[in-house]
Amino acid sequence: MEFANSKTKENLMRAYAGETQARTRYNFAQEKLKQQHYAVSELFRFTADQEKEHAEVFYNHLKEFSGQQVKVCADYPVDLSTDACELLKLAVQHETNEAEDLYPEFARTAREEGFADIARDFENISKIENTHGRRFESFANLMREGRLYKSDKSEVWVCLNCGFIVESDSAPENCPVCGADQGYYIRLCMAEWGARGGCQ
């Protein structure tokens, strides 16, 4: 099949638009949350940067249409909450939809139309979105259960502002080194948003 007449061309533009909008939504969430929950806001920033890279992967497949318009019809979410737990929950839904439904479908279509390299990118990015969803879910669960900054066992906590590390059953209300509030603390096993999306 010719690429210009393929469903894959439209799917790439849908994916590009979706990743671009996800990045923007996550940047908005970061701004809303950074005063009260700095660590959560950094999770949104970190993920937004990865969504930008995904958008670029999809966009680069469309280079032969440079200077042209690609028409698509799709639905995109509006997440205007200021509640951290709600924003995390919505992010889980969006990432899970991409990982389990949207991108696997796009990959199948690309393979059927003879675009194996594009199918592979959809499959690989689908796996990344699954990781994103698990990470967001870990934070959402901790926040919903009131355990984002405390634990029923001793844990190692790190201040994302200065790097101070402390072992305790809760994060300090204020960092003893730099004075940053508790919102800057995260479990060390979740710092840099470990690949499994949570602590063991």
Question: Gist?
Answer:
This protein is mainly α and 200 residues long. Helices cover 54% and strands 10% of the residues.
Shape field: elongated
Distance between the termini: 47 Å
**In which order are the strands of the major sheet placed?**
2-1-3
- The SS-based structural class is mainly alpha
CATH hierarchy class name of the largest domain:
Mainly Alpha
List segments where confidence is low: pLDDT < 50 over at least 5 consecutive residues.
none
Mean pLDDT: 93
Q: In the residues, how many domains can be counted?
A: 2
Based on the coordinates given, report the CATH architecture of the largest domain: Up-down Bundle
Please describe the topology of this protein:
Elements: H1 7-33, H2 38-60, H3 84-112, H4 116-144, E1 150-159, E2 165-170, E3 185-187
Antiparallel strand pairs: 1-2, 1-3
Helix pairs in contact: 1-2, 1-3, 2-4, 3-4
What do you see in this structure?
- This protein is mainly α.
- The chain has two domains: 143 residues, Ferritin, core subunit, four-helix bundle (Ferritin, Up-down Bundle); 41 residues, Single Sheet (Rubrerythrin, domain 2), CATH 2.20.28.10.
- The chain contains four helices and three strands; from the N terminus they run ααααβββ.
Can you give keywords for this protein?
2 domains; 10% strand; mainly alpha; Rubrerythrin, domain 2; three-stranded antiparallel sheet; 54% helix; 200 residues; elongated; Ferritin
